[in-house]
Amino acid sequence: MRKGLIASAAAIALLAPGAASAASVSIDVITATWSNVVGGSAVNFTGNGTASASVNWGTGGPQSGYVFTAATMPIASLLPPSPSPDFTLGTFTHRNFPITSGTSITGVRLTITAGISIDNVSQGTKNFVFDFDHWETPNGANPCANGGANGSGVNEFGCADRVQVGFNNLSESIVIGADTYTLNIVGFEINGVPFSEFWTKENASNSALIRANWTLRSEVVPAPMSLALFGMGLAGLGLAMRRRAA
Asked: How far apart are CA 136 and CA 236, in angstroms?
C-alpha cells in the first residue's frame, strides 16, 4: 500500500502545473567583442566580432592585452537543473608585459554573442555581457599584492597582476518552460583547478579556461561594476604613477 501511495504521488508531481521538463540547450557558435575600456594608453582592438578577439594597451614595449578564444562548438547542456554543470566557454589569455610608459587599463567589457538552439530548434543569437576588472599591481612590492613573496611562484618576474570577471545585467536570457536562464561565467580554471580570480605572471602570456554555466536569471548576482570600475580606475591611476616613479 505504501509503495502505491509513493508511486501515485510521484505521478501527480510530474503532471502538476509548472513542473519543469528537461530541455537540451546548445551553443552552436560564439563570437567575442571587447569594448568599454576604462583607462589605458594606446588601446586597440583586434578580431572583434570573431571567435578570437583581443584588446591591447600600453606603449614603450610589447603591448599588454586580453585575448578571448571560443571553445570548440557545440556546447550542450541539459536544463534544468540550475545551475547547469559547468562547461568551458573559451580560453582567456593575458599578455602581461611591463608598461614602461603610459597607463594600464583598469576595466573592460566582453560581449559573447552566442548562437543558441533549444531541443534542436534555433533561437537565433543572444548577447551575454561580462565586465573584467584589471589590477596592475606594483612590480617591485615585497610582499606582493597577492600576499606572496616577490621573485617566487606566480610573482617570479615581479608581482603578479589580478584579473576578475563579473556578470552584467545587459546580458540576454533564454526561456525553458516557465524558467528564465542566462549564461554566467563562474571563474577561471588552470590545470584543472578552479579560481574565482586570475593572478598572472609578469612578462609572460598566461592562459586559463573560462568556465561558465546556465543559471536561473533570478539566482545570478551582478557585480556592482560601475562602482568597482570607478574604484579600480582610481587605484590603477595611483599605481601607474607610483610605477613610473619607481
From this structure: 6
